[in-house]
Design goal:
48% of the residues lie in helices and 6% in strands. It is of the alpha+beta class. A 4-stranded mixed β-sheet has the order 3-2-5-6, covered by helices on one side.
Length: 484
């Protein structure tokens, strides 16, 4: 068979996503913090983009309106979907005439408002004390030689944030080139430091260290921890009482002592900063209606740099290569601004549709949350389900009922014997309320909860109740039971 080169014509259909459309899709699924980071990165990479000096500068909105031929200052009055049209940003477009109408730049205010409550300077310069710092400070005061101190520093350096030893004795001995017995001896000295129970290798050793520090090393509580910690976890008091040959009341007293101990001694020096959620949308109730307000605090206001406008306006001072470069960056800047506007519009429309479906929840609470799927909102706002999924990913909304992720409002249905189905989140809340009022000495089993829910016209299986209970972080009836 001979090999030869041929030219053939072939007609095919395929979906091609332009870089601009990919950018719009990417921005749509970003969270608020990720969007701010993406905008700041684009500000660094694109010299044509500039940040407006004040909130009164609406240059970004003007550029987006010119590209879309549609005002966006009031999304509540006009929230039509932005359509991306490639021919509007063709290569041969005269960008000088395009920018001519928007060459005026509002004057920036001379003064800026100073926050009334300025954080103390100490909040910026003072470093919190870590667990390692606290232990090293104590370890330097010990009467050991330099070699033993280095072993202790190695042990302290291998502690987890909760205070437990992450490395094994053999690993530390190999790193320092010493015997395992010597490391064991130094470890015992480290375990005498504050906080009590630090440098333990497991929970059992941590609790025993604390009991010895309280002069309870020979007590019944220490025996329970050393020999029956798993039985205590499962509340198998009968077995503990029988094997230790003590009464149940004595086991209960020992358990009360153990409950006062700290299973995570290092957490008091945990310096992890809390991650606060900044909602993308606020929903306020004004009279009988709900008002949607998009949260744009912290989002940079984008505009086209006046410097590059002047360069494009002066045809004689710019080379064709520089002109092509500026026009390319200008196209990228305009697409970014349009994509941000499209993202905000889409979020507004989806939130408006959610309010339409979940109004009873906003009025009365989680018990009135109705089942909802992406298709319902997609058909209501005339968008694809994948778009709705991207919009509701990592987006949060502040409502009169609290702060929720947009995904929260899309819930699977639970059937009823009579009437319409209800949302699974409402069933979870009902289970939580039932367990909250149960008798601690006689907790309700999952089967009993099923019978109560069926009495309330809710058709649910026992395994579903168990799954929802575990999702709520509620233990089984055996572990919830209190014997005293």
């Amino acid at each position: 068979m001979a090999l030869e080169l041929r030219q053939n014509l072939k007609l095919t259909q395929q979906l091609v996503m332009t870089p601009q459309l990919q950018q719009a899709i990417k921005l749509l699924q970003l969270s608020r913090l990720e969007l701010v980071e993406a905008i700041n990165q684009e500000l660094e990479e694109n010299p044509v983009l500039d940040e407006s000096p004040s909130e009164e500068d609406f240059e970004a909105e003007n550029i987006g309106a010119a590209a879309e031929e549609q005002p966006i200052e009031k999304p509540q009055n006009d929230v039509a979907e932005v359509r991306v049209e490639e021919e509007r940003l063709r290569e041969d477009m005269e960008w000088e005439s395009y920018l001519g109408e928007y060459s005026s730049t509002p004057s920036a205010p001379n003064t800026r408002e100073v926050p009334s409550e300025v954080p103390s300077f100490d909040n910026f310069v003072s470093a919190p004390i870590t667990l390692t710092d606290h232990l090293i400070w104590q370890w330097r005061l010990t009467d050991l030689d330099d070699a033993d101190r280095l072993i202790g520093v190695q042990i302290i350096g291998n502690l987890e944030p909760d205070g437990y030893l992450a490395a094994t004795i053999e690993e530390i001995a190999g790193l320092e080139g010493v015997s395992v017995e010597r490391v064991e001896r130094i470890l015992a000295r480290v375990q005498e430091l504050d906080p009590v129970g630090v440098a333990a290798r497991n929970l059992q050793e941590c609790l025993l260290i604390q009991l010895r520090h309280m002069d309870l090393g020979d007590s019944l509580a220490a025996r329970v921890v050393a020999e029956h910690i798993h039985d205590l976890e499962n509340k198998n008091y009968q077995k503990i009482s029988r094997q230790l040959k003590v009464s149940k009341e004595a086991v209960f007293a020992a358990e009360r002592v153990i409950l006062y101990l700290d299973p995570r001694p290092g957490r008091i020096y945990n310096n992890e900063e809390p991650q606060y959620i900044s909602p993308d949308v606020f929903i306020y109730k004004m009279g009988d209606d709900y008002v949607i307000v998009l949260n744009e605090d912290g989002l940079p206001k984008l505009r086209v740099s006046q410097y590059y406008r002047d360069i494009l306006g002066d045809k004689d001072s710019v080379t064709p290569q520089a002109k092509d470069y500026i026009q390319g960056k200008l196209r990228s800047a305009v697409w970014l601004i349009r994509s941000i506007h499209q993202r905000q519009r889409t979020i507004y429309r989806v939130t408006e549709s959610i309010i339409k479906f979940q109004r009873e929840f906003l009025d009365k609470g989680v018990e009135y949350l109705r089942p909802l799927v992406l298709r319902d909102v997609a058909e209501d706002v005339q968008l694809h389900e994948s778009t709705i999924s991207r919009v509701t990913t990592n987006k949060y909304v502040h409502t009169p009922q609290g702060l929720f992720e947009l995904k929260f409002f899309f819930d699977s249905p639970i059937n009823r014997f009579h009437g319409e189905s209800m949302a699974s989140e409402s069933v979870k809340n009902r289970i939580k309320q039932i367990i909250a009022v149960e008798d601690p000495k006689k907790p309700l089993s999952d089967q009993r909860i099923v019978e109560i829910l069926r009495g309330a016209n809710i058709d649910i299986a026992r395994r579903t109740v168990a799954k929802y209970r575990e999702m709520l972080g509620i233990a089984s009836s055996n572990r919830r039971k209190k014997h005293y």
